[in-house]
Design a protein that fits this description.
The complex is a heterodimer. By secondary structure, chain A is mainly alpha-helical. In chain A, 45% of the residues lie in helices and 8% in strands. The model of chain A has no long low-confidence stretch (mean pLDDT 90). In chain B, strands 5-2-1-9-20 form a 5-stranded parallel beta sheet, covered by helices on one side. Chain B has a 5-stranded parallel beta sheet with strand order 11-18-12-13-14. In chain B, strands 6-7-8 form a 3-stranded antiparallel beta sheet. Classes of the chains: A mainly alpha, B alpha/beta. Bound molecules: flavin-adenine dinucleotide (FAD).
Chain lengths: 102, 414
Amino acid sequence: MEKTIANKSVNINDEGYLTDFSQWDKEVGTEIAKEEDIEMTDKHWEVIDFLQDKHHKEEALSIRGIKKSGVINIKEFYSLFPGGPLKKSTKIAGIPKPKSCI
Amino acid sequence: MKNLVILGAGTSGTMMANHLISRLPKKEWKITIIDQYKTHYYQPGFLFLPFDIYTTKQVKKKGKKFIPKRVRYLQEKIELIEPDKNRVHLEHGETLDYTILIIATGTKIAPEEIEGMKGPKWHKNIFDFYTYEGSKALRDKFREWKGGKLVVHITEMPIKCPVAPLEFAFLADSYFKNKGMRDKVEITFVTPLDGAFTKPKATKALHYLLEEKKIKEVTDFNIERVDFKNNKIIDYADTEVEYDLLVTIPTNMGDALIERSGMGDDLNFVPTDKATLQTLAHENVFAIGDATNLPASKAGSVAHFEAEILTENILRYIDKKPLKEEFDGHANCFIETGNGKALLIDFNYTHEPVEGTFPFPGVGPLNLLKESRMNHMGKMAFRWIYWNMLIKGIHIPFVSATMSEKGKHFEEVK
Ligand SMILES: Cc1cc2nc3c(=O)[nH]c(=O)nc-3n(C[C@H](O)[C@H](O)[C@H](O)COP(=O)(O)OP(=O)(O)OC[C@H]3O[C@@H](n4cnc5c(N)ncnc54)[C@H](O)[C@@H]3O)c2cc1C
């Protein structure tokens, strides 16, 4: 599916996650965050950086990983991305929603 | 003499000992296997023990019975692996040198990871059923329980046999119905995932089961702590779920041995090539089963498929041939749905659980993704197959290590 976000045409899946990370930039991230009612701050971006870095190293993302990230603790993570923090933050980061194996 | 050492004599280690004994030349190779326990547990039986469906005798046997005579079998705790020195240290000081090492130390529960879980109420009104002790204690509790709020809870993924918690909820529904007290028991299923089934396809096909059995669902619940004084579990978003009886699947982790040896990830699982089963850090060290970090199910059936491929790759490694990149994450498991029925699902790294028939395309007799009595018989027969064929490394007829696409209806995972 194609969608225009921050005046850029990007490809997304049915849940609204970017399917091609190369189409991501900070403006796109900011727009997606707005749709989720999140106003991005430096702290938010620090988390996004961390997640993207993990993703590029092909390391699985989990709540536990956040705990050990040294970037923030889980309570802060929840308050920055209320609701489903891992789902929302990965969406803003332009990376796939973490999936867990059956 | 060259040494092949297997760490852990559970499902995977025992299978590897049986496969390799006939494949490695006797004159050149000595095989040693080490486990801390005398008993080999049939873990899938821990699901049935709490409901008095299996007896304690049916789920444990002496490990020695299943280890070939020519294999040296040591009962001791493994203290440390020194992969750079090709050496393993045992608890009482013995050291073993190896040419090839197979890590098969599995995964175990770590309730101490969550505040309040392994406190004064552990095995009083907070139980696990992933250990023999937990499962048996829960059986005794159920026998006298008068009812109330039963919460079945998953702490975090990954866990071994990921469908077991849901099967547990289904079996609890039948159990209390049969006892004539279902109206006194409220069953709630609490999961960190966004649905009770971990694969979207299965969720769609199977959600009706939860409704039919009146099992409530709480999703996206990432537990922060157990408030054992007030009988509540609390998550990071401050959502609370009250219980009278909590049955939890604690965090699953690899053995502390892996951490001590500096060979694991955050959860002490060993980073392993997902197609060849060679560890990423050391070419003469292989890993199999629950101990690996593979993105496949942690299940006995998966370990069974892995064992066939790993055996082949060890022989190739010895012959200095390129390893077969063959393992596709194939898993098939029965899902017990209560009332003498079960489902069967079949999937791999790239395919969602499929509908169709198994193992014979178009014939079955087992139905994939559909509830049936035949599937339940399959699940019960699995115990016999486990003790008599699976861990002895006998090939199970018609079931292949990689997934067959015949007679199944597919959808690729995107
Ligand atoms: C409740 C439940 C239901 C299940 N249902 C199913 C099912 O229906 N179908 C299915 O296919 N699978 C099922 N499973 C999963 C299956 O039992 C496991 O995936 C399988 O046993 C994994 O085998 P393994 O050899 O990798 O690990 P294990 O069988 O756990 O063996 C690991 C061994 O290593 C030993 N060990 C570890 N560390 C040390 C150390 N430091 N020193 C000495 N020894 C050590 C342990 O004592 C243990 O014997 C279920 C599991 C549970 C708990």
